[in-house]
Amino acid sequence: MNDRLTQQTAFLSEIEKLKTIYRRNRTIDRARFENSAEHSWHLALMAIVLCEHADQPGLDLFKVVKMLLIHDLAEIHAGDTWLYDTEAVASQQQREDAGAETLFGLLPSEQGDKLNSLRREFDARITPEARFAVAIDALQPLANHVLTGRPDDEDPKPHATEVLARKRHIEESSVVLWELAQRLISQSAADGLYE
Amino acid sequence: MNDRLTQQTAFLSEIEKLKTIYRRNRTIDRARFENSAEHSWHLALMAIVLCEHADQPGLDLFKVVKMLLIHDLAEIHAGDTWLYDTEAVASQQQREDAGAETLFGLLPSEQGDKLNSLRREFDARITPEARFAVAIDALQPLANHVLTGRPDDEDPKPHATEVLARKRHIEESSVVLWELAQRLISQSAADGLYE
Q1: Closest Cβ opposite residue B40 in set A27, A41, A53
Q2: Over the stretch B78-132, which tens digit does the pLDDT of each residue have?
Q3: Mapped to the 3 state alphabet, what secondary structure does chain B carry?
Q4: Residues A138-169 pLDDT 10s
Q5: Which of A153, A174, B84, B191 counts the highest number of beta carbons within 10 A?
């Protein structure tokens, strides 16, 4: 087997693990928590379906989709970080950067560097593609909460004002999707899912 | 909310259900069966990483990725069909076509038509993009079997010769990936996963 294919299959086997990294929100049957792999799939399709609502014209949509497919891979080493867990959020970037170096290092170097660079572009939230991808990533759990109810009844409920504050960056990418996000937050607050 | 966004959010809520459609193979911790949403995520990333091995140059890779992200959505209405269940395979196309009409019909019509047309292109296996996407879809469970062992000890084991016959179409898209597939099949046969 050629060396590149050996490295690529090692990477593709390693990322099987993303299917076992669980988030705080549930699947629609409430039978289990959502994992980061199926979450990433949902985001990629959301971006494809909702791209007309990005305020910036001419986005490179494939770049957005690639970012969303890989944006959580560093969790394989770093674990999922809950947005409202302040302590974990403080160390998140450092933990994920280290995890990403290890993971993307499995690939042929120029291929791993390209994907890791896309991940860093996503995290930096500067380019229009990264802002739109981050907006989609912020929007999906809000829609999921309305459909599935609160992630875990034992968890402290975030305040609706805190949710609004942490999701406000959606507005930087899409006024229409920010309106949708606010409507979803109001609905979950009315349903008692947020304080 | 504008009409298009209402239709798009109805579709994006409906596809939550793909996370509850389970396949025959397991996750790497063997704790549960893999679902079609995380499977689709894995395929999209496999296509991105392995595209250099497609024999046809100049593939439209984004088209391949979009096909793989949507290729199983019709299962929301039709259920997952096991490749080795001959009776279910016979009615699969008809069941999935009907399911897809309903599902993509939730979207604004020109957007739903485009996605459903991509799904039909995938199923027809004629264009280079469809052949490569279908090859990736055939390859992933072979790699997963080697990592996770047999899907279910109660299921009848397929014969290695049948697996080889049903996966042989990979060769039409990529000689290199067909060699990889044969190696994976031999390994699983040696591990006692196939007869």
Answers
A1: A41
A2: 888 888 888 888 888 899 999 999 999 999 999 999 999 999 999 999 999 999 9
A3: CCHHHHHHHHHHHHHHHHHHCEEEEECCCCCCEEEHHHHHHHHHHHHHHHHHHCCCCCCCHHHHHHHHHHCCCCHHHHCCCCCCCHHHHHHHHHHHHHHHHHHHCCCCHHHHHHHHHHHHHHHHCCCHHHHHHHHHHHHHHHHHHHHHCCCCCCCCCCCHHHHHHHHHHHHHCCHHHHHHHHHHHHHHHHCCCCC
A4: 999 999 999 987 656 666 788 999 999 999 99
A5: A174
